[in-house]
Each structure stands twice: as structure tokens, then as C-alpha cells.
Amino acid sequence: MYTSVEFWDRVAASYATRGVMDGAAYETTLERTRHHLYHLSPSARVLELGCGTGATALRLCDAVTGYVASDASSGMMEQARARKAQADAPNLSLMHAGLGDDALGQAGPFDVVLAFNLLHLLPDLRAGLGQVRALLKPGGMFISKTICPKGASMPLLYRGAFLVFPLLQRWGKLPPGFRKLAVAELDAEIIRAGFEIIETGNYPARPPSHFVVAQRGA
């Protein structure tokens, strides 16, 4: 079986050509994120973890003074650099680093950390949330969106896909380490890590892709 980084390196080029599966849910996520970014101080700095091909970073980076988009996959970073080269985004920096890498800590602390479609892939969710907290200034915001299929109502197609998920992972068709989270479980872990949740939503609702805005305590 591929490691997580090997998987994303292998699929990076094809991933960059895919469209968004649920455009309405994606746009809602961007709108709610931008709402919070626009209320930051002019000097605020944002870190996006697991930025992939950089598509979301390019949609959001104009809302802040400094935006760092990071990913552990060199293949994804290559795609992100290609996208940035075709865009007008002077305040966007790209960093080849994964959560827990020293480079991220040295670049921080940040006013906001973003993690979209990442938390369910972390090998240790609790440790990962602790690392996110350490990257933030006191009072900083953590904004994430995470698929939470555990115990949730979902279309028949999704239920069938989750049944064969282990086989698809074994064959290298899906990323390893996928964690089936429940919405309440994820919220509880974020609170346990020292955050106060200030906004949630599910975009889409079935299966829930859980959007959370949380603030780091002192």
C-alpha cells in the first residue's frame, strides 16, 4: 500500500484536472471562510495546511496580507507552483511541508490556520490538532472542513463506496489512513485541543462535510 505522501505525489497531475464535486458546497465554504478572513487585521497571516494544487489558496489569498499554502506532497507542490505562475497572487507563498514539520513552526505563529479535507487523513487526530494549536497565536482562528460519514445519513452511492473503501485503499486507488469521523466526535476533539467553536455548518449535508470555525484559547 502507498504511504499518504506517495499516494498524493502519484495522483497530483490528474487531481489538478478534476472539477469540484459539489460546486455549491465549495462556494459556500469559500464564502464563510472569506467572511472571517475579511474581519482580520490588515497585517494578519494565514497558513493553509494540505493545500494540494493550490486552487483554494488562489481563491482566498486576496483576502489577507500574507498567505502561506503548504503541503507534504512534492507532486502537489509542483501543481500549486504551476497554478501560481499563471495567477496574480504576490502575497501567496508556497511551502513544501506537512503538519508537524519544523518549517511550519519556524514560519509561524499565524493568525489563522486553514485545513480543508485534511483532518480525516491525519494518522493521529488528537496530536495533529495540538500541532495546529501550536501554530496559532493566542486568540487565533482555526478553520477546517472535514468529511464526517460515521453514523450519518448518506446517499446509496456513498454507502456502497464506503463498503469497498478498504479494497480501494489496498489497490492504491484512494488515500491511506482515512478516518471515519462523526460530526460530534470531531467537534469534541477540537474543543479538547483547546479551541472554542464559534461556527459550524455542513457543506454538503449528506454525507456531512463538517465546516468548523474555532478560536484558540490563551
UniProtKB/TrEMBL annotation:
Domain Methyltransferase type: 47-142
Top-level division of the source organism's lineage: Bacteria
GO biological process: methylation
Keywords: Methyltransferase, Transferase
MF-aspect GO terms: methyltransferase activity
Annotated InterPro entries: Methyltransf_12 (IPR013217), SAM-dependent_MTases_sf (IPR029063)
CDD domains according to UniProt: AdoMet_MTases
Gene3D superfamilies named among the record's database cross-references: Vaccinia Virus protein VP39
EC number per UniProt: 2.1.1.-
Pfam families xref list: Methyltransf_12
Protein's recorded name: Class I SAM-dependent methyltransferase
Phylogenetic lineage: Bacteria, Pseudomonadati, Pseudomonadota, Alphaproteobacteria, Rhodobacterales
